[in-house]
C-alpha cells in the first residue's frame, strides 16, 4: 500500500478576472448556468480529460459588436479547470457559459436548438419538471437560504386570499415550496423543510421527484480518505409543520425511502390508510391536528416496520370513556387499588405525568409473567414494547354500495342477517376488475359523467382507491375497493410515543389511542 | 321445470339465452328474489321464468356464475376471487346495481 502512486496534488486554479461580472443580468444567467451544469453534470460520468477549448471562447467580449475591438486577453488559454477526481472549480465560468452569453445578442440566426424545450431532451423521464423547477429555482431573485419563510408571500396571500384561491395556477406559497424542493434536489439535501408556508394544499407532483433524490458526495479534503465514501442513499426527512393542509397528495406515499414525516399543526381530520406504504418511516409527528382516530395501518408500521416514534398528541381523539366498547382485552378497573403488584414506582409517577386523566376509567397493565427483556421477540410480541390491544369497538357494516347500513323499515334486521354472505358482492368484484383497468387514473370527471349515473360514484371511488395506490383489507390482506366492515380498536403504543423508548412496567397506566380498521367483506370482522 | 314451487328457475337474457339455476342460488339477488316471491303474484313468481331484458347473454352468464360462486362460498372464511374479464366489468357493475348483488 505504501508504494501506491499518490494522487496528484491539487493544482492551483486560475481565477481570471471576469470581464463582465458587474452586469447583473450576466450574474443571473451565469448562476443559471452554474445550476444547470452542476445538476446535469454527473461528476462520475465526467470525462477525465479536459473539455475542448476554442480560442474564441476565452475572449470575454467576442460578440459581433465587439468584432473590431481590441481584446486584451486574446490568445490566452486556460489550461486547467479542476482535478480529475472532482474538485470543485471555484470559478463558475465555463466555456459553455461564454457561448450562452453571446447568445443574448441577437445574431439574426435562428437555430432549432434555441427552443427552450429542447433542453429537456437532456434529462430523463421527468425532464420537463426538472427544467421547470430549476428555472424557478434560479430565476427567483429571493435569497436562497433554505426554508426562509416567505414573509412577503404569505403577507400577500393573506391580503387577498380570494384572489389566491381563484387562480387556477399555483399560489405564491406553492411556487415557493417548489423552489425549496428544487433546491433540495439540486443540492442533494435530504432535509426538506416546508414549514410555515401557509400551504393550503400541496400541489400534485411537488414531492414526486424526491423519490429519486440522491445525495451528492462531499469533497472537503483533496486526499480522499476512507470516510469520504458514504452511502448516497438519502435519509429523507419532510417537514410540513404550521401549514393548513387537510389532505396529503398521493405522491407522498410513493416515497418509499421517507424516514421522517412531520405534519404537526395542520388541519388533518384523518390520515389515509395509504400511509402503511411508507415502510421505511421511523418518525411520524401528527400532533396539533384535528384527528379523531388514527389509521390502523400505523400499527403495522410499528409492529413490522421501522416506525418507532409516533407523536400523536394533542389531538381531539375519540375518548375511550365515551366510546361504545364491544370487547375489553385489558380489564378496566374503576379506579381500584393495585393490590397484588407491589411495584415501587407505579401510581404517583403515572399520575404526575398525566394530570388530566382523573377519569373513572383506568386500565393498568397486568402481566402474568414478570416483564423481562429476555422475552424472546420471536416467541410472541413482547408486552414490554409491543402495542397492546386494549379494547375493540362495535363493528359497523356497510352495504354493497359502501354506505353504512341504516336500520330502515325496509331492511329489517332479520332480512339482512338472513342474506349475509361471506362472498364479496358482484359490485365489489366488478370494481376490483375496474380498478385494474389501465387509464382509470387518467379519466376525468367529465368522462365519468358519460357513464350511467348509478355507477358514477362507484367508479369515482375506484379511481380514488387506485390513485391512493390501492387498499388492502386489514384482516385478510386482499385488495379491495369498498369496505364492508369498519370498527375501532384501542391500542396502547406508549413505548413508541416518546422519543426515548420507555419500556412498560407492571401496573402502568395504559393510554389507549383509537385506530380505525376496515374489512373487505362481512367475514372480515374482529377476531375474538 | 317451472312453477312456483320448482327447485329451479330460468333466467332469460335479451338475446334469448336461458340459464337454469337453483332457486336458492337465484335468490341471492334481491331483485330476483322479489320477482319470484309467490306472494307478490308477479308472473315470474307463477311461472318461475325471469326475462331479464336488460342483459345480453354474455353478461347474464357471468351473473349466473357469480350467483353460484356467492352461494358456494357463503360460509367460507377465505373466499377466493372470482375472475372478471375487464371488458365486462362495467356492464357487470350495472347488472350488480340492478340485481342488488
What does this structure look like?
The complex is a heterodimer of chains A (528) and B (101). Chain A is of the alpha/beta class. Chain A has a domain at 399-482. Chain A has twelve helices and 15 strands. In chain A, the strands form four sheets. In chain A, strands 5, 7, 10, 11, 14 and 15 form a six-stranded mixed beta sheet that branches. The longest helix of chain A is centred in the N-terminal third of the chain and has 17 residues, at 24-40. Chain B has helices at residues 23-26, 30-36, 43-47, 57-72, 89-99; strands at residues 8-12, 18-22, 49-51. Chain B has a three-stranded mixed beta sheet with strand order 2-1-3. In chain B, strand 1 (8-12) and strand 2 form a beta hairpin. Chain B is an alpha+beta fold and 101 residues long. Chain B has one domain: Potassium Channel Kv1.1, Chain A, CATH 3.30.710. The longest helix of chain B is centred in the middle third of the chain and has 16 residues, at 57-72. In chain B, helix 4 (57-72) packs across helix 5 (89-99). In chain B, 43% of the residues lie in helices and 13% in strands. Chain A binds chain B through residues 400, 419, 421-427, 429-434, 436-437, 451-452, 454-455, 458-459, 476, 478, 521, 523, and chain B through 28, 30, 63, 66, 69-79, 81-82, 84-86, 88-90, 92-97, 99-101.
Shape of chain A: globular
- C-alpha geometry of chain B: globular
Helix content of chain B: 40-55%
Span between termini of chain B: 25 Å
Strand segment tally of chain B: 3
The pair of chains with the biggest contact is: A-B, 27 and 32 residues
Give me the strand/helix succession of chain B.
EEHHHEHH
CATH fold call of chain B: Potassium Channel Kv1.1, Chain A
Strand content of chain B: 5-15%
Biggest sheet overview of chain A? 6 strands, mixed
The oligomeric state of the chains shown is: heterodimer
Annotation, overall tally of beta strands of chain A? 15
CATH superfamily of chain B: Potassium Channel Kv1.1, Chain A
Tell me the strand percentage band of chain A.
Answer: 5-15%
Using the 3D structure, state the CATH architecture of chain B.
2-Layer Sandwich
Structural class of chain A: alpha/beta
With helices defined by DSSP (H or I, 4 residues minimum), what is the helix count of chain B? Answer: 5
**Helix content class of chain A:** 10-25%
Amino acid at each position: 500500500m505504501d508504494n501506491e502512486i499518490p494522487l496528484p496534488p491539487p493544482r492551483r486554479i486560475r481565477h481570471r478576472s471576469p470581464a463582465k461580472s458587474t452586469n447583473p443580468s450576466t450574474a443571473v444567467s451565469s448562476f443559471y448556468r452554474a445550476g444547470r451544469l452542476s445538476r446535469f453534470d454527473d461528476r462520475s460520468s465526467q470525462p477525465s480529460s479536459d473539455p475542448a477549448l476554442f480560442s474564441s471562447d476565452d475572449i470575454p467580449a467576442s460578440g459581433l459588436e465587439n468584432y473590431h475591438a481590441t481584446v486584451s486577453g486574446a490568445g490566452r488559454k486556460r489550461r486547467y479547470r479542476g482535478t480529475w477526481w472532482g474538485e470543485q472549480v471555484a470559478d463558475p465560468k465555463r466555456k459553455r457559459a461564454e457561448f450562452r452569453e453571446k447568445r443574448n445578442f441577437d445574431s439574426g440566426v435562428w437555430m432549432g436548438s434555441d427552443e427552450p424545450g429542447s433542453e429537456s431532451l437532456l434529462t430523463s423521464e421527468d425532464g420537463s419538471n426538472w427544467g421547470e423547477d430549476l428555472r424557478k429555482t434560479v430565476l427567483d431573485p429571493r435569497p436562497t437560504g433554505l426554508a426562509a419563510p416567505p414573509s412577503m408571500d404569505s403577507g400577500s396571500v393573506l391580503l387577498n386570499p380570494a384572489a389566491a384561491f381563484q387562480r387556477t395556477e399555483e399560489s405564491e406559497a406553492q411556487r415557493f415550496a417548489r423552489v425549496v424542493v428544487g433546491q433540495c434536489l439540486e443540492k442533494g439535501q435530504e432535509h426538506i423543510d416546508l414549514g410555515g408556508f401557509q400551504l393550503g394544499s400541496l400541489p400534485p407532483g411537488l414531492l414526486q421527484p424526491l423519490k429519486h433524490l440522491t445525495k451528492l458526495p462531499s469533497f472537503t479534503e483533496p486526499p480522499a480518505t476512507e470516510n469520504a465514501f458514504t452511502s448516497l442513499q438519502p435519509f429523507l426527512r419532510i417537514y410540513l409543520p404550521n401549514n393548513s393542509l387537510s389532505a396529503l397528495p398521493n405522491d407522498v406515499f410513493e416515497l418509499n425511502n421517507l424516514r421522517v414525516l412531520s405534519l404537526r399543526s395542520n388541519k388533518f381530520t384523518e390520515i389515509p390508510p395509504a400511509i402503511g406504504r411508507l415502510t421505511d418511516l421511523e418518525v411520524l409527528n401528527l400532533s396539533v391536528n384535528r384527528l379523531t382516530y388514527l389509521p390502523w395501518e400505523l400499527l403495522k408500521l410499528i409492529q413490522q416496520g421501522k416506525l418507532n416514534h409516533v407523536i400523536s398528541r394533542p389531538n381531539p381523539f375519540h375518548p375511550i370513556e365515551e366510546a361504545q366498547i364491544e370487547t375489553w382485552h385489558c380489564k378496566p378497573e374503576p379506579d381500584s387499588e393495585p393490590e397484588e403488584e407491589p411495584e415501587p414506582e407505579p401510581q404517583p409517577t403515572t399520575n404526575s405525568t398525566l394530570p388530566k386523566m382523573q377519569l373513572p376509567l383506568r386500565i393498568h397493565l397486568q402481566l402474568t409473567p414478570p416483564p423481562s427483556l429476555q422475552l424472546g421477540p420471536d416467541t410472541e410480541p413482547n408486552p414490554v414494547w409491543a402495542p397492546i390491544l386494549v379494547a375493540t369497538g362495535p363493528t359497523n357494516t356497510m352495504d354493497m354500495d359502501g354506505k353504512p347500513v341504516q336500520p330502515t323499515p325496509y331492511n329489517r334486521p332479520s332480512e339482512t342477517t338472513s342474506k349475509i354472505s361471506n362472498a364479496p358482492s358482484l359490485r365489489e368484484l366488478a370494481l376490483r376488475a375496474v380498478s385494474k383497468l389501465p387509464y382509470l387514473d387518467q379519466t376525468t370527471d367529465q368522462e365519468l359523467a358519460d357513464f350511467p349515473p348509478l355507477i358514477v360514484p362507484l367508479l369515482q371511488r375506484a379511481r380514488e382507491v387506485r390513485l391512493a395506490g390501492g387498499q388492502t383489507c386489514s384482516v385478510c390482506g386482499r385488495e379491495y375497493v369498498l369496505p364492508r366492515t369498519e370498527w375501532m380498536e384501542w391500542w396502547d403504543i406508549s413505548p413508541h410515543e416518546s422519543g426515548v423508548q420507555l419500556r412498560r412496567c407492571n401496573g402502568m397506566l395504559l393510554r389507549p389511542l383509537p385506530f380505525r380498521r376496515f374489512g373487505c367483506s362481512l367475514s372480515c370482522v374482529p377476531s375474538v | 321445470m317451472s312453477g312456483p314451487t320448482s327447485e329451479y328457475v330460468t333466467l332469460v337474457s335479451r338475446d334469448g339465452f336461458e340459464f337454469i339455476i337453483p332457486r336458492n342460488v337465484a335468490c341471492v339477488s334481491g331483485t330476483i328474489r322479489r320477482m319470484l316471491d309467490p306472494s307478490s303474484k308477479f308472473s315470474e313468481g307463477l311461472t318461475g321464468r325471469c326475462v331479464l331484458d336488460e342483459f345480453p347473454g354474455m353478461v347474464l352468464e357471468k351473473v349466473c356464475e357469480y350467483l353460484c360462486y356467492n352461494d358456494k362460498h357463503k360460509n367460507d372464511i377465505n373466499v377466493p376471487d372470482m375472475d372478471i374479464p375487464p371488458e365486462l366489468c362495467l356492464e357487470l357493475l350495472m347488472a350488480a346495481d340492478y340485481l342488488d348483488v
